[in-house]
Amino acid sequence: MLFKQQALLRQKLFVLGSLVIGSVLYLVARVGTLDRLQPICPIESRFHPPEPEQIPLRTLQFKRGLLHESRKGNATKEQIRLHNLFQQLPRAIIIGVRKGGTRALLEMLNLHPAVVKASQEIHFFDNDKNYARGIDWYRGKMPFSLPHQITIEKSPAYFITEEVPERIFKMNSSIKLLIIVREPTTRAVSDYTQVLEGKERKNKTYHKFENLAIDANTCEVNTKYKAVRTSIYTKHLERWLKYFPVEQFHIVDGDRLITDPLPELQLVERFLNLPSRISQYNLYFNATRGFYCLRFNIVFNKCLAGSKGRIHPDVDLSVMTKLQRFFHPFNQKFYQITGRTFNWP
């Protein structure tokens, strides 16, 4: 009798288990179907619909893989045509300054799904040979992008090259121009350090910074030295203002971009009329490198090249002070023109 009861109980449990498993399998299949029919959108898009005539953020993120393949030359012409990708002239250019943080700024802006960057410095407007090749050659150097994305390139030599403002004006008189600056004396030493490293790599000797920055005959600042001349920001900006109104420029604090990049990037987003998409999630501090690195998603991170953040040589304090005093009146004028003040000496 007991044996029959146990057998009956096992049979009931088997039937009940089959029903439970069947229900679970049905729900899994049903959820999978719903997922395919109704893709889950990013949380922010549920409460903030895409702006009119803007490509939704999710669409831009979805196509980033194809854009990457296009830049590597792996995407076919048919894929490019079907996804409406084409090479656009830049609507914004990082024009300088050298050793101000142009590469960091470009890479950080590329975190935004509506921004596509030219990977290499094109040197179109500052190089006579390249400029003679024409605007179609320049466009051909741009990455493939979607119609509503902004293409950005950076060539720091643009800022100090006399012919460039007029040449860019002829291409697009309403283009947005980004200038990233650092404290002028520090920038000059950084400029020197980069050249010094190149000389040492080739086993060549090079003058000390003090001997280049200070004229031995007059004991005054040597304005013929390019590293010094580049740091006189206001002199170069005045040349640009002959062609473009000050409203078309945005000044980025290169020193702050190193220590606290997000506020600077948010200011650039507003200047470019982009929806705010770059967040603290996209930026994480790498203690080993001493710089912020970039997080595009849960699987793809990127840090700047190891050449960034070179250790500067020790410079005589009296020379540093002389340079800071020299740059001071130029800095004051730069603040007045741009409307942005920095705590430079």
At a glance:
This protein is 48% helix and 11% strand. It is an alpha/beta fold and 345 residues long.
Features of the shown structure:
single chain, 345 residues, alpha/beta, 5-stranded parallel sheet, 3-stranded antiparallel sheet, 16 helices, 10 strands, 48% helix, globular
Query: What is the averaged pLDDT score?
Result: 83
Strand content of the residues, in percent? Answer: 5-15%
Given the helix and strand composition, which structural class is it? alpha/beta
* Strand count: 10
- Helical element count? 16
Overall morphology: globular
- Runs in which pLDDT lies below 50 for 5 or more consecutive residues are 19-65
Rounded radius of gyration (Å): 28 Å
Numbering strands along the chain, what is their spatial order in the largest sheet? 3-5-2-6-7
Question: Could you tell me how far the N terminus lies from the C terminus, measured between alpha carbons in angstroms?
Answer: 99 Å
Helix fraction, binned, reads 40-55%
Oligomeric state of the chains present here: single chain
Strand/helix succession: HHHHHEEHEHHEEHEHHHHEHHEEEH
For the biggest sheet, the summary is:
5 strands, parallel
How is the topology of this model organized?
Layout: H1 2-37, H2 43-47, H3 57-62, H4 64-72, H5 77-82, E1 86-87, E2 92-96, H6 102-109, E3 115-117, H7 128-132, H8 135-140, E4 144-145, E5 150-154, H9 164-171, E6 176-181, H10 184-201, H11 209-213, H12 226-230, H13 233-240, E7 249-253, H14 254-259, H15 261-271, E8 283-286, E9 291-295, E10 301-302, H16 317-338
Parallel strand pairs: 2-5, 2-6, 3-5, 6-7
Antiparallel strand pairs: 1-4, 8-9, 9-10
Helix pairs in contact: 13-16
